[in-house]
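Re: weekly structure request thread

Next one in the queue (470 aa):
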Amino acid sequence: MFINRSVIITLVHQSQKCWRGFQTLSAELTVGNRILLRLLICTASFVVGVGYGDRQEFPVSLEPLSTAKAEVGNGLQLVNLATRLEFALTAPTVIANVEPEWSETPPSPELTPDSPTTSTDPPPTNPEPSPEYLEPTPEEPPAPEPPPEPVTIRIRAVGDIVPGSNYPNNHLHPNPRELFTAIQPFLEGGDILFGNFESTMTRSNAAAKDVRRPNVFAFRNPPEYAPLLQQMGFDVLSVANNHAYDFGQQGFIDTVANIEAAGMTAVGVKDKVAYTEVKGVRIGWIGFSTSPNQNSILALGSAASLVRQAEANADIVVVSFHGGAEGTGAAHTRNQTEYFFGENRGNLVAFSRQMVAAGADLVLGHGPHIPRAMELYQGRLIAYSLGNFVGYRTLSTQGALAYSLVLEAELDDQGNFQRGQIYPVLIARGGIPQRSTRSESIALIRRLTASDFPQTPLVITPDGRLQRPQ
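Done, posted below.
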């Protein structure tokens, strides 16, 4: 039978009052009678169910019972039992944090003396733990942020652009937009489109060349051609070439101003680095030629210094140069100085490699009017000649001079070459580019690359893909 603790506490409090009377009475009894009295009280404690685990133990002196131990002898156990009962009745009763031992029939919930009612409902089979004893659920660490997508810049580039001329006679296309119609898809899809504008955009009539002499030409286009080129997708145009000053200093200034006014970037002003930005990547552009009025490929020291300046202020540096001998007999690239009609056209291999060593990430060559080999040098792509692109009634289209291309070079945000593509172009009679169905330029560039740079790690596939070694 289970007796609720609150009832025991009440009984103990009442017993303490009675005990004071028993203490007065026991003082008048003999030692033997005191033992018997305590034995009776002990028996009563077992009847009411007072346990020793339900109280806070306090030290109690057994000195008053020393005489009883001597008289009773073997009754020592009874003395100890009576002494414990005396402590239970005299010491303040404190209920310890002891779990109750449930009987077969679970007892009713514990009551305090102030509880108005009692409940006989059994405790739940699996009681919910108190909130303060719930172990805190560890917070899951936040999921790591995915790494940012690597930034790559796709630069598309073409060679020489001469969209007709109106000097000394009118050789302009009646609808100049048609010059680019067939090739328009190749001009799209990159982040930047570059070309070498090998003419002028000015209204000046003061030609700087005597065009009456054989093989001497002065090219001039109306300023309205600048918006046309911008609409065709061009972002950057080089004006560092041997026709940029066909109409003197004024013609050059007009050409640069018209390009800039159309929203494009002109590259090739002496001692100047032009900057563009795409996808948060800053690109520095420098144009070189053999002209004394421009940054020269013949002055390697000053050229490298300009590249280092660009590298310090840009994420990627692109070098454009116009040099080398011209014509089908000048298809090969040698590590030596090239001449054309006695003019020093530079050592293109030495120049390009030193520019890469100085910080150039991409080198785009033009000038020989024919595609040349490509090289991967210190992880940077060098295209030694992109050939012609547009030469309406101005540039020859005989033999391999009609082979052309749109080059795509994909770089990471540090300028490292990732991959590329050659889109083959064939320039039709009259100098208008068309999409090639036979990939003549790809086959030519592969052959020249294997011959001129057999050690290059660059891989050019038959379909024109440019790959790094695996």
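The CA atoms of residues 328 and 400 lie 6 Å apart. The domain at 152-467 is CATH 3.60.21.10 (Purple Acid Phosphatase; chain A, domain 2).
Next request, please.
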